[in-house]
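quick one, 221 residues, struct below
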Amino acid sequence: MTTLLPRIMRALEQFHANHPWDHNAHYHRWILRQLPRRFNRALDVGSGSGDLARLLASRAGEVHGIDVDPSIVDRARELTGPAAPVTFTVGDALKEVPPGPYDVITCVATIHHMPFSDALTCFRQHLAPGGTLVVVGVCRPRSRSDYLIDAVAIPANVAMAWIKNKDRKAPRPASMTAPTRPATMTFADIVRDAHQALPGARLHRRPPWRYALVWHRHYGP
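---
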């Protein structure tokens, strides 16, 4: 399976080039279920076209999105109405985060572009006491169980692509135009480093080809 799956994945990548759907947006509603019904301030790291930031605004007093890509930030601003309590910044999330603290920090399919432990430490520093951090990331498969999880996800992934592409005239989602790179850390590496940076963090694999991290910052030191 470990030798066959990479060939299947390459074929699947070609399939998705012709039948695109946003895997990351698939998790947005799940992210909302991890958060309080109302909170004051939120930060979305790697905000892209702003879909998640706008969802967070339905519960937050204000939301800040940050992304390194100026063109996608311009698109996010275009898609966000002037009445929405959302602002977008172009910048490096580890150096140019709008001043916090934040009650909620989210980061979807972005942290593998950053030094992992440094990113978690940065998020922890900007998270308010009692706040919630939610990361949805990608990891490199290594173990048999990793490959099994990936293989199980393939039929559902293809089915979802067909459903999302019933209207063949639909435009490619704006959130899928940003450049990407493959993950280099395995899930075991991610769990180890996350527990060092964020004691008590909860992590688990989520198909297709994602993992989730949820951490609540306690009150006090």
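The CA atoms of residues 205 and 211 lie 4 Å apart.
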